[in-house]
Design goal:
Radius of gyration: 15 Å
Number of domains: 1
Structural class: mainly alpha
Shape: globular
Helix content: 55-70%
Number of strands: 0
Length: 88
């Protein structure tokens, strides 16, 4: 019998993980647009869609949190009109 996969930690459950996420999010503000595009490619495995700093920051920040704490449930994605993963 296989056990169910462990769910990702929720914010506040592991202070060390939360601190790492917060540090990564804060670091986005000091990155150049080229640095943000490199981070995008690392996190999404595809080229960044544009050079808009604010767009890249917001989407990368969401992706960091999504990968650490889990994304929206299928039900919530449907409520938001989002399908599949958060790429692009």
């Amino acid at each position: 019998m296989t056990s169910a996969p462990a769910s990702p930690p929720r914010p506040g459950e592991h202070p060390a993980i939360d601190q790492t996420v917060l540090s990564r999010l804060a670091a986005l503000k000091s990155m150049s647009v080229n640095g943000l595009k490199e981070e995008w490619e690392r996190l999404f495995a595809t080229g960044a869609p544009n050079n808009s700093r604010s767009y890249l920051e917001i989407r990368i920040a969401y992706r960091i949190q999504e990968l650490t704490h889990g994304g929206l449930s299928k039900k919530r994605r449907g409520m938001c009109g989002v399908s599949g993963s958060s790429q692009g």
